[in-house]
Each structure stands twice: as C-alpha cells, then as structure tokens.
Write a structure and sequence with these properties.
By secondary structure, this protein is mainly alpha-helical. 56% of the residues lie in helices and 2% in strands.
C-alpha cells in the first residue's frame, strides 16, 4: 500500500459509477493539482494542511527549482482550451443540472487524460470532462464568438450534515460596490493575493471558502485605473499581459517561419527538422534528468512505550493511515516471532505486514555491516539471520495451523498461510530451508494433519518439484501416505483422503515423472500404484498415465537389475529359482518370479526341462515341480508338447537315469492333457516312424522309447491300436507287454489277499514278497508303473471306498493294506495316484490309518506341495481329528501326534501347530488307566516283573501335576539299564522300554533331554558295544532322542581328545560313521521297530537332510576323518564307510546338502587340517560330485572353471573353495602360498574369459572377500583399459574383440558386485570418471574421422559403461549412505560429466541413452554430499540453463542474483557526436563497463522514509534515467 506514486508515473484516474452523483457534483473539499498528486508528508507543519493557496507552478518551481512550463496569465491559460465542456462547468452555477450532466455518456474517450493536466481549474480525479470543438461555427459576427467559460461545479452537499439555516438579511446601508456580472466566468481561488489589496487572514479565507468556493472571476477586474493590466505599454500591446513574466523574455521574439521555411525546402530539410527536434528532446531530457545520488535509508526504529507501540500497531492495521507517516516511529522490539504474532492478532493487511518485515529485516541486516568486520562474517551473519527468520515463519505457520480448537482458526490459518506465501514469493525466506521444512512436515505428518500439510505444500508445488533433493522426498512422502491408507483396515473412512492422494499421484505421473526415479521407493510402493493409471473412469489421460507408469517402472528396473542379461545369465537365474522352489516348496511367490525373468517363455521351458532331467539334482520332487510349472497359467500360451519334442530332439540323453526322468515327466503331463500323445505320434510318423528294434529297447533313444513308456490307461482304443501298430514295426511285442501288466496286477492282488481268477497262472505259484515286488515294479517300464498305480488307486482303493460309502457291506481299509498300497506306489514313484489314495482314505474313521496318511504327507511334503495338495490334505485330516477327538477322545492320539509333526513344516499354520503340540502333551499326561494310553494293560502283561513295577511307578508319577526330579532320574536310569540289556538282541522288550521313556519324557521335557544327552555322551565313549543302528533309531522314532542331541554329542569333545582318549579305539573310533550311516540307510520292520516306526524314522532322516544341513556337514567331515585314520590300518572292527551302498548314499547325501546350503558345505569341507589323508579323501568325494563318471582327484582352477555350468555351479563352488583353502598355520609361507593361488586363479579366470566361458561367475560371490576383491579389481582394471579414447583410438580389427571382452568382464564384475557376500561397496574410481570423460570427448568431437568410433561408442561402449555404473545404483549400494564415505569429489566429477553427456546425447533422439544417463545421474546425486553438490552448482551454474541440469543439482535461478550494472562514459563533447548519440547512431561508440549489482530485497520499500527527496527510492532513480515532472 502506498501514499505516493513513483516518479515519472501518472496517477491512475479513479473510476466512478454511472449511477452516482459523482459525475455532476464535485467534492466539498477542492484540492489543487499539487495537493492531489503530492502526498501529505507527516513532517510538514500543521499550517501547511490548512493552507489551500499554493499554486501548482509555484509548487513545482519550489521543489524542482525549474521554471513553469507555460507562460501567460491564468486567464490566457484557461481560455486557451477553447471548446472544452464539462458536465460540472456551465455558464452560470444556476444552470447546473445533475440530471443533464449525467445524461452524457461516460466513456474512456471523454475522460481527461492525467498525462496532460491543465493548470487552469479544478482537475481533481473525481471529475470527468469531454472535449468538443466549435471550429465549424462559421456564422459571421461583429465580435469573435465567446469562448466557452469555465464554471466551477456546484458544491457537493454533505450527506451527513443538514443544510444550515439562511442567514438573517442585513438591512443596514452598504457602500456602493461594483457587482460582478452574473454571466462572468468564475473559478476557485487558488491562493492568489487579493486584488483589492485587503489583507485576508487564514480564518477569513477558510470561512469564505467554506461559504462559496467560487471566489474568483475569470479576468474580471473592475476598471479603477490602478491595476497593472490597465496600464498600456509596448510590451503589453505586443505580447499581452502576463501575471508572471516569462523566464526568458527573448524566447519567442519573432516568428520562426523566416529561418525555418528556407531550410525545409531542401531535400535534407526533413532530416534537419528531425535532428533539431531530437536535439531539443535530448536537451530537455538531460536538463530534467535526476542525477543526484540516492538518499535512501531504511526507516529507523525508535524506542516506544508499550502503549504507544500498541497504538502504532493499530495504526499499521488501519489502511487509511499512510505508511510514510508510520515510518517515522517504527518501534523497537517487534521482530521475529513477535512480529508475526502481532500482525496476526492485529489483522494487519498482508502488504503492510510485509512492509514491516522488510523494514525490520533491512535494519537487522545493516546492523551486521556496521560492526566493521570482514565481508565473510557479514555474509554469514546475514545468512544466519535469514535462516533464523525462516525458522520463525515456519514455527508461526505450524503453530497456527495446529490450533484447531480455536474458534477463528480458519481466518487465522488463512492469514498465516497468505503472509508466509507473500514472504516466500518476495524471496524474503531461505527457500531451501523452507522447502525442507515443508517436505519434512509432510513426511512426519499423521493422517489427522495430512490434509492441512497437503493444502500448504500445494502452494509451493511447482517450485519443490523442480528440485531433485526436495521433489524426490515429496513424492516418496506422498507415496508412503498413499500406501498406508491403501492397506489401512479403515480405508473406507479415509476414502476422501485416499481419493485426494490418488489424484495427486496421478498428476505427479504426468507433471514430474523424474521424481519417481528412486528404486528403493518405487519397488516398495509399486504394487499399490499398479491400478492408479487406469482409475480415472475412461479419462483421456489414462493412456498417457499407463505409458508413463510403465516407463517409470522400466527406468527403475534398469537401475537395479543386472544389465548383463545374456542367455547364460538368464538360464542361471532360472536354475537358481528352481533350486529355491525345492528348498521352499510352499513359497508361491517363487514361480511368479521365475516366469518374469524373461519374455522368452520358450527358453524358460527348455531350462525347466534341462533342470528336471539333470543328474546333479537328486530327488523325484523335481519332476512334479517341473510338471506344475508347465501346467501353470503362465505357460498356457506355450505348446508344451512341441517344447518337449524339440528338447528330446536336441538333447540325446545318453544316461538311463535322465531317460527315466523324461518318461516320468511326460507321463504326468500326459495324464493332465498338457502333453498330446496324438501329436507325438504324428510327429514320430512324420520322422519315418519306428523300424529298428534298438529304437524300442530300454537303452534306445529317448525320443523313440517314449512311445513304449507313455501311460496306456490314459489312451483311448484307437490310440492304443495306433501305438501297437507303430511298436510292431520295430519288433516290439505289445501282447507280451499286456501279459506283463496283467501279471503285475495279479501279483499285487496276491499280496493284498485279493482272490485271483481260477485260470490265473499265478494261483499255483508261491506268492511274491512285498519287497521283491516293489523292486520289480521299480525296474519296470513307466507304462507298467502307471497301469499298476492306476489299478491300485482307482480300482482297489476307489472300489472299497465306494462300497463303504454306498452301504453295500464293504469293510474298512486295513492299515496293513494301506501300507502295502503306499509301498507299491512309492516304488512306482507315482505320487499323483498316491495323492488320490490319500484323498480317498481321509474319509475313514480309523485314527491309526489317518495317522499313516499324515505321515505320508509329511515324508513327501515337497511333492505334494508341488502338486498343491499339501495344505488341502492337512485341512482334511485336521477336520477329521476334530471329529475323532469328540468321538474317541484319547483314541485319536496317533493322528494327533502325526499332525503335530506335520503342522510346523507348513507355512502359515504356526498357531495350529502350537495348539496341536499342546493337545498332544495334555493327552500324553493323561491317566495310564486310559484304554488308549501308550502303555495298555495287554502290553503291561508282556513285561517281566521289573518292567511291570516300572510301569506302575510311572502311572503313579502321572497322578502328580509336577514331576519329582530324583524320582524321574531313578526311573530314567532304571529304564535305560533295561534298554541296554536288550540292546542288539532284537527283542521286542527294547521297544517297550522306548515306550516307557516316551511316557516319562512328558513330565519334564527339559530335564529328560539333559538326562538323555548325558547318556548319549556315555554311549559315545564306549569302546565295546553293539552297533548304533540297533539302539538309536527306535529312540529317535519314538521321540525320546532328538536330532539336536544327536548332532551335539556326535563330535568328540576337547576333554575326550586331550585327557581320556587321545586316540579313540574300538567302537568309539567309528561312532560318527555309524551315526552318519544311520541317518542314510533305510530300515525294515523288525521286533524292535514296527513299520510305523520305520516310516517315522524315514521322516526324521528326510527332515535332517533338508533342515539340518549345517549340522550334518560337520558330522560328514568327522566321519571322513575317522575313516581316513583307520583306512590304511589293520582295524579290528569294520568301517561303515567301506560299504559300497553306504558310499552311494553318502554321495547322494552330499549332493543334496550342497544344493540346500552350498555356503555351509564350502565352509565346512574347505577347512584344511594337518592330516593330508583327510584332505585327499575330501578331494576325492568332491570330485566325485563334480565328475559323475570319472575318478576322484585334484582338479586345477582351469579344470573347475571348464566344468562349470548352471547345474554344476554349487559343486564347482565347493571345489573352488577347497582348492583355495589354506593351512591353519600363519607366516610368510602361508601369505606366499595365498598370493600364488591368487595368481593361478586370476590366470584361469583370464583364460576362461578369453575362451568366452563365463558360466563360473555365479560361484564368485561365495568365495572369501579377499579373493573376490582381488578378482573384481583385476576385472575392473581390464574393463576400463579397453575403453577407447580420442588420444589412442582402437584398430578396426580389434573393436569387435574388445567389445566382446568388455561384455564378459562386465558379467564377471556384475556377478561379484551383486553377490551380496562378495566385495564391499566402494565409491567411484577416478579412472572410471576419466573414461567417462573420454567418451564425452568422442561424442562432442566434430571430426569426420571419428564417425566410426562415435558409432561404436553409441552402440556399445556407452551402454556397457552405463551398465557398469548401475552397479553403484543397485539396492546394496543405495542401502549405504555414500555421503559419509570419502570420494565425494570424484562422484561430483562423474555427475558433471554425465550432465554433459546428457546434453550431448540430445543430438541423438532415436537413442534412449540420454534418458539412461540422466537416470543414473539421478540415482548418484541422491547420495552426494552437500559440499560436493554446491561445488557442482558453481561449476554448471553459468555454463548452462538446461532445466534438467538445474533439477539434477537442485538449484533454481534467483532473479536477484548475477545482476550487472553497465557504466557508460561521459557523452562526447562535440555537437555532432551528441547529435549522433541523440539519433541512436553512436550508441555502440560509447564504451561500457560492467560491475556487479547487489539487489537488496529487504530494502525494496514503497514507503521508505518520512523525508521526501529527489532520489529517496530504494532503487536509485538514476538506474532508470528518471526525469523530474515539471
């Protein structure tokens, strides 16, 4: 708000309405031009306000010391405007009519311009005028027509006062006075001296002015002979009468026609005339130009009392009081938070509050400069003051916005936000600190305050998003709030806020996608953003949002994923995911990740087939995993039959085991219809069919033998006939095959005690044992296996279940029959039919039978998890358990125990597993008199007297709530004594002792485990004892002996090794071999272990292999150590590892353990000791794992790397770790040996890279950090060395070779860098930045000779180097705060080079390298230290105006910075030079000098000081060549 217009700027005419009376009535208080356009100064005396007699010319002359612009009398000046009419002026005041005045149209053309004010009358802004000429009046008159006379408008009546009563007529006689004619024009008296010579006091003048403003008549002076105008002279007659003599009496002595007219006749006359006028204007400009120095000073502050300060603040809040008046007494003590609070409480208008803030700030900042210190301290103090002021504003806004409970909260928060916005817009705040506060507030806001923060921050939305450091945080905060509301349980309540956030995110997609380039944030919130782009109900922006969403996703993925995505790398990733499915079969997310690894689904299918048929992956579950993957929806658009046939055609599959895996997989796919047997037959016929008996032989080619192995029961009659026709051409007897199948089914019926047909030839033969039949089925063809399995599942179990459910008198399925069916199906490896059997059997009510079903699911959990039946079977059995507990009570304990063992292995059933375990302990602690207790009366009668007494004591112990430890120990050792008596005798009493221990264990499990641990350690030291596998299996299967105790007591303790038995002898020397053999060998039913116990022990064995790999590996090493010690000695007892079957089982166990945890295997086996025999034995076994058909022995680094592929990678890792292992000894020899190994490995790596063998890179992360760091440094050095530069361009012949080498080296670096456990994340190297700068130079080169090199850089070298840079933007690198690590300057250099490359790549719009370079720069700049960022800003600030670079380094151009002041020298002294200057011809001739101009925003005040000076503005008027108004 201002009370004085700027210099040389015209005052705008206030507009009045048409309907009002302002057009016809003048205000009561008439002011002259000087009073209207010059402000009232607070420092003027009071008399000046009452004095209304100051002339405009006098004011101008007194202020600017200049002459009046016009000469002549006022009458001459007034009458010079001939033909002017005004609705407020008429011939006589009596003729003034408001209605007639208002009848004239009010248009801008009829309003008098303020730029040309008249000095002759009332020219207040409240009046309007219309000009009309009367030149068309041609009627001859004896006298010239009278000019239009000015008549002062009638006085405007005061609306608030009543008309005063007419004065009483004075009847006294008066002297004769010449009366003024009524038609004489009148004008208001403007302070001229009274012509009558009477002295008029101020009081009289005021009274007369108030009575009648028309106190002057236009040039009407009654002739009395004494007036100056009545005296005639030569000058008056020639030039007229002047009230004031002109400044130059000779200014217009004669007409200018005589000197000018001849000059205008010439051709250059117009030019001469324009030169003259230009010179006149130039001289006029220079004569009126302001040249004095600026006298600006901020308004001073004074000390006032509290009362006066309050009055001053109230005056500040009043817009009617001029700021110039208030600037005299700005009180001290109003600053910071107090200033803001006072403005809020007094409701000071925003512009006046900003004026006060500027006044206070300008004085505060100038206070630093008056201290007389150096410039650095002054700048620092000023920055600190502005920072503190910004903090006050932030606290002010936050405090007001958080005061929700106040009644006038809305008005206050509106004022606070508006005031802060004005301060921000005028750059009166530290913008960086203010933006940081805004973003921090949004980040830390709760949902209650979130709408307020969103409202505030949207005011500064555009400015924040233009800077990377604030825009990225803003987007992350909005995405975080959106995600929290998206997954909030009360999302419906927060729907308006969620809708607002969704709208903001959608707008951000369109306006600022660069702020989403933040991999850590994007992948965290991507799932909840997936549906946003298309949620606008068919909006036109949906397509663009979807496109931008995909673009952002791919850009973030580029910064995080490995860019060395060659086909071998993809295969390796797929194989790793397949191995992960084996380790975690219930994880449903892994298959989805597997299908997303590549768009080439056919290559993924081929890799699945190769993995399924690999001999390096043991187990039958891989067949069902592969079948489930090929049946999934992700593979629905792939022709599985064609893929399998192509695989069989390309891979010869020489090994029999691999062929059997193919037959098994095809059989499963054919059952579900995913493998088309008719299509396979058609394909086979198109290739010529079968014609050689060798083709259908068991060892024949897989592609032809498959016709024999396909499941026959799934074929219709026509397909069977076609199959038989094709097989007969190769001399294969289909009839013999049918007889074998019939014989197999007859054998199965015989074992199941099913009556055979009278004419069955097997009726008169000796029945075959189950073990022998299972072995024959296992060696039969796949077609026979599927036929037998189908009969067992559909005909036998299905028939019995159907009869039982239909009520046809069927009996329940005996447990022995179920076990027989299960054994046969397991021998046939047909778990699909076994799943069907379990589903059918689950409907029975036999608890023991259902417990067998649960044990079957537990043993084959990976298979049933792959088929998807694991959890459904568990739920079915769990529901059956609930009903059985209600019906049978403790009789359901077998099923409860089996489900309690199964539940912990299933994911998401922790609560159910805990409940089942609690119920099991409760049932086991029930009374021994229960009929279904583990120790029944029938079992007790079979014991001798001693066992009967123990059973009775245990029953007494069961009646107490807590066990007595001495009593428990006495019973434990009594049972153990009996158990050791029956050890090795195959006596069923041994099993009864195990049952007693099981019942005893439930009373105090912890103490029982301690007792069992001490007893096992005692057994460990025995030198003469029976075999371990005759004692421990029954204890393990009954639950008395846990695997934890077994693994903890297996190694010999240090006390045993040093004091008691330094060299174990007898049975103690083979204890670990026996334990290892026990965990591998199968067990058959015996008097000690029933079939149920044997099956439960199989579950324990499988559980140990899968979940206790880290415990078994030391056991294997210890067993090999025992075997190596006694291998070449005359041992008195046989070694378990000498058994061939045990060796095969150990090899399979090692293979499975390495696949489960290759790191644990590497760490355990690579620990070299002083025994060379053990080292040689480990070398032998690890080589057997790697080379299945060769002998063991040492393998060099090169051989190991040559053997590496996707499937042998874990075994090569163990072998490589074993070769790199060092002795336990330290010293110079060990370091030299380590260095030699490094050199050998480096040489082998170089040779493998040169040979294009990079499959071994997958095992690098598992090596030690020293080795990986050494290999990484070597690979990086080679990679950077082959990058070209302008100084040494490569040969054309070596370009392709170098590119291929660089790709291989990048793969090695990528494998080490992304391995996780490999080398540490290191900062960027200077050599990398130098190479990046070399590529920049190549791109910027305009030399035609570098065209081919530039093309190579664009197509290969830049993508490779960008891929290398993405290693520093990976999640492992971004998780570390790089701003705290050294190397910030190198990172800053890299960012500057990348910024230059981004601009250089704009010349190649078809390539996306520019966007990739920009994205890499965005990821790198996020962790840049602040000082390095400021260094980058100083480097690029003056070099470029690219908004991308400003966004990258987070700096915005400040319009007040970098202003320069041009100083021109004095104009030339000659008249011709000045003329050229005036015409604009010699502007370039004047030299200029530039100097920095400091723009002080705090001093830009519209009402700076109370003193009115010529040049008192905050910006000196000399900068604008301002002129005085004359």
């Amino acid at each position: 708000m201002t009370s004085r217009p700027p210099m040389a700027v015209s005052q705008r005419q206030p507009q009045r309405t048409l309907s009002g009376s302002g057009l016809s009535q003048s205000p009561t208080h008439q002011r002259t031009l000087s009073q209207q356009y010059l402000p009232q100064s607070p420092i003027r005396k009071s008399e000046a306000f009452a004095d209304q007699a100051t002339d405009l010319g006098d004011v101008a002359q007194s202020r600017y010391n200049t002459l009046p612009r016009r000469g002549g009398s006022r009458l001459k000046l007034e009458l010079a405007n001939d033909g002017i009419e005004h609705p407020g002026f008429c011939e006589s005041p009596q003729n003034l009519d408001a209605i007639s005045a208002n009848s004239k149209a009010f248009t801008p053309s009829r309003v008098i311009s303020v730029n040309d004010p008249s000095e002759s009358g009332d020219m207040t802004p409240h009046s309007t005028s219309r000009c009309q000429t009367v030149d068309d009046d041609s009627t001859p008159m004896p006298m010239p027509p009278r000019r239009a006379r000015f008549v002062v408008p009638a006085k405007r009546p005061e609306p608030t006062t009543t008309a005063s009563a007419p004065l009483k007529k004075d009847a006294r006689p008066k002297p004769f006075v010449l009366e003024t004619p009524s038609v004489a024009p009148r004008y208001p008296n403007t302070g001229k001296p009274d012509t009558t010579g009477k002295t008029t006091t101020t009081k009289d003048a005021a009274l007369r002015a108030s009575a009648d403003l028309c106190v002057g008549c236009a040039d009407f002076y009654p002739w009395n002979g004494g007036h100056a105008e009545d005296q005639f002279s030569d000058g008056i007659i020639r030039h007229g009468y002047f009230d004031k003599a002109p400044a130059q009496s000779t200014q217009e002595p004669a007409s200018a026609k005589a000197p000018l007219f001849p000059a205008l006749k010439h051709k250059s006359g117009l030019h001469t005339l324009s030169t003259i006028f230009t010179s006149i204007l130039n001289q006029r400009r220079h004569s009126g130009q302001i040249t004095s120095a600026s006298t600006f000073k901020p308004p001073p502050r004074v000390t006032l009392t509290d009362t006066k300060r309050e009055i001053w603040l109230k005056d500040l809040a009043n817009p009617a009081i001029s700021l110039r008046r208030l600037s005299r007494t700005i009180p001290h003590g109003i600053r910071g938070k107090v200033l803001l609070d006072q403005c809020l409480n007094k409701n000071v208008p925003t512009d006046r509050a900003v004026w006060l803030a500027k006044c206070v700030g300008a004085n505060e900042i100038r206070a630093f400069k008056r201290k007389g210190v150096n410039g650095t301290f002054v700048m620092g103090g000023e920055a600190k003051w502005i920072r503190d002021w910004t903090v006050f504003v932030e606290q002010f806004v936050e405090t007001v916005s958080n005061s929700f409970s106040e009644n006038d909260w809305k008005a206050k928060v509106t004022y606070a936000i508006r005031l802060a916005t004005h301060l921000y817009a005028e750059h009166l705040l530290d913008r960086d600190h203010y933006m940081d506060w805004l973003v921090s507030g949004l980040e830390n806001s709760n949902q209650a305050k979130l709408p307020m923060w969103l409202l505030i921050i949207q005011i500064y939305w555009k400015d924040i998003l233009k800077l990377r450091r604030h825009g990225r945080r803003l987007v992350s905060a909005i995405l975080s709030h959106h995600s929290s509301i998206h997954y909030h349980p009360d999302r419906d309540i927060l729907l308006p806020l969620a809708t607002r956030l969704r709208s903001l995110v959608q707008n951000l997609f369109l306006s600022s996608p660069e702020n989403f380039i933040n991999p850590a944030t994007w992948f965290k919130f991507r799932d909840c953003l997936a549906g946003l782009p298309g949620s606008s109900n068919g909006s036109s922006n949906d397509e663009s949002r979807t496109r931008i969403f995909k673009s952002i996703d791919s850009r973030n993925d580029y910064l995080t994923s490995s860019n060395a995505k060659s086909q071998p790398a993809l295969r390796s990733i797929v194989v790793q995911l397949l191995d992960s499915i084996c380790r975690s079969p219930l994880d449903t997310a892994i298959p989805k990740r597997l299908w997303k690894t590549s768009e080439n689904k056919f290559s993924i299918v081929r890799t699945i087939l190769e993995w399924c048929t690999s001999l390096y992956r043991p187990g039958v579950e891989k067949v069902y995993i592969a079948a489930a993957l090929l049946r999934s929806e992700s593979a629905s658009d792939i022709d599985i039959t064609n893929a399998v046939l192509h695989f069989l055609d390309a891979d010869p599959l020489e090994e029999t085991a691999r062929k059997q895996l193919v037959y098994h997989l095809v059989s499963e796919l054919a059952r579900s219809g995913h493998f088309s047997i008719p299509q396979y037959m058609q394909w086979l016929i198109s290739r010529g069919g079968l014609f050689d008996p060798a083709q259908t032989a068991p060892d024949g080619p897989c592609v032809a033998r498959l016709l024999v192995e396909i499941p026959i029961h799934s074929l219709n009659e026509s397909m069977r006939n076609l199959r038989g026709t094709l097989l007969r051409r190769s001399s294969f007897s289909v009839e013999d095959e049918a007889r074998d199948m019939a014989m197999a089914i007859s054998c199965v019926k015989s074992i199941l005690s099913i009556p055979l047909d009278p004419d069955d030839p097997l009726l008169h033969r000796k029945p075959m044992s189950l073990k022998k039949l299972s072995k024959r089925i296992e060696l039969s063809s796949r077609s026979l296996m599927t036929t037998v399995s189908s009969w067992l599942s559909n005909d036998f179990i299905g028939g019995m279940t159907q009869n039982l459910q239909s009520g046809k008198g069927g009996v329940g399925l005996p447990k022995t029959s179920f076990e027989t069916v299960r054994t046969l199906l397991e021998a046939a490896h047909d778990y699909t039919m076994l799943e069907n059997v379990l589903t059918l059997t689950a409907s029975y009510s036999n608890a023991e039978l259902l417990a067998c079903c649960a044990d079957t699911v537990c043993l084959h959990l990976p298979v049933f998890a792959a088929t998807g039946a694991a959890k459904s079977l568990f739920q079915t059995l769990y529901e059956r358990l609930k009903s059985l507990l209600e019906e049978q009570g403790v009789g359901a304990r077998p099923l409860l125990a089996s489900l309690a063992n199964l539940a912990p292995r299933l994911t998401g059933l922790d609560d159910v597993a805990t409940q089942l375990q609690t119920d099991l302990i409760r049932i086991d602690r029930s009374s021994a008199a229960d009929a279904s207790s583990p120790l029944s009366e029938n079992m007790a009668t079979q014991l001798q007297d001693a066992e009967t007494e123990l059973s009775e004591q245990i029953e007494k112990l069961a009646s107490y709530t807590s066990a007595d430890r001495p009593t428990m120990e006495r019973l434990f050792y009594a049972i153990i004594k009996k158990l050791q008596m029956y050890w090795g005798k195959s006596d069923e009493h041994q099993r009864l002792c195990c049952i007693l221990l099981t019942r005893l264990r439930v009373f105090d499990i912890q103490h029982f485990n301690e007792l069992m641990r001490s007893w096992v350690q005692h057994i460990r030291k025995l030198t003469n004892r029976p075999r371990i596998d005759q004692l421990f299996p029954s204890l393990v299967s009954s639950g008395c002996l846990s695997l934890a105790i077994l693994f903890a007591t297996a190694p010999r303790s240090q006390l045993q090794a040093t004091q008691f038995q330094p060299n174990p002898v007898g049975s103690a020397s083979i204890y670990m071999q026996e334990v290892l053999q026990m965990l591998m060998m199968p067990f058959s039913p015996s008097p000690v272990m029933t079939s149920e116990d044997c099956y439960r022990f199989r579950i324990v064995q499988d559980h140990a292999k899968r979940n206790h790999a880290r415990e078994i590996m030391p056991l294997i090493r210890g067993a090999l150590a025992e075997y190596s010690v006694s291998h070449n000695q005359q041992a008195s007892i046989p070694q378990p590892l000498e058994d061939e079957q045990t060796k095969c089982q150990l090899l399979e166990l090692l293979r499975g353990l390495i696949l489960v945890d290759p790191n644990a295997a590497s760490q355990t086996l690579s620990l070299k000791g002083p025994d060379p025999k053990l080292a040689a034995l480990i070398e032998f076994w690890t080589t057997k794992l790697l080379v299945t058909h060769g002998g063991g022995g040492q393998k060099s680094f090169e051989q190991v790397l040559e053997l590496a592929n996707e499937f042998t990678l874990p075994f090569c890792q163990v072998k490589l770790s074993l070769n790199l292992a060092i002795d336990d000894s330290n010293g110079p020899e060990a370091s030299e040996r380590l260095q030699a190994q490094f050199e050998q490995l480096s040489k082998a790596v170089d040779n493998a890279i040169d040979a294009n063998n990079i499959m071994w890179t997958g095992m690098l992360p598992s090596l030690s950090s020293d080795i990986t760091q050494h290999m990484r440094n070597r690979a990086e050095s080679r990679f950077l060395d082959i990058i070209p530069c302008l100084k040494s361009p490569p040969d054309d012949a070596s370009v392709d070779r170098n590119i291929h080498m660089a790709e291989n080296l990048l793969t090695v670096i990528d494998a080490i860098f992304r391995g996780g456990s490999g080398s540490k994340v290191s900062p960027l190297s200077g050599a990398l930045v130098d190479k990046l700068a070399d590529l920049w130079d190549i791109l910027a080169s305009r030399n035609s000779e570098c065209a081919s090199l530039k093309a190579a850089v664009l197509s290969h070298w830049l993508p490779l180097l960008f891929s290398y840079l993405t290693l520093f933007t990976s999640p492992s690198a971004s998780a570390i705060d790089m701003s705290k690590l050294p190397g910030g300057e190198i990172r800053a250099r890299a960012l500057i080079v990348l910024a230059g490359i981004v601009q250089e790549l704009d010349s190649y719009p078809s390539s996306n390298l520019g966007q990739r370079a920009f994205d890499i720069a965005l990821a790198l700049v996020d962790s840049l230290p602040e000082d390095a960022r400021l260094q980058c800003v100083r480097a690029v600030k003056d070099a470029t105006a690219d908004p991308r670079i400003r966004y990258l380094f987070s700096f915005a151009p400040n319009p007040a910075e970098d202003l320069m002041l041009a100083h021109r020298e004095k104009p030339p002294p000659g008249i011709h030079e000045r003329r050229a200057m005036a015409m604009g011809m010699g502007v370039s001739m004047i030299p200029e000098k530039l100097s920095p101009f400091v723009f002080r925003r705090w001093e830009i005040l519209n009402e700076p000081t109370p003193n009115v000076g010529e040049n008192d503005t905050s910006l000196s008027l000399t900068l604008f060549d301002a002129r005085k108004i004359k």
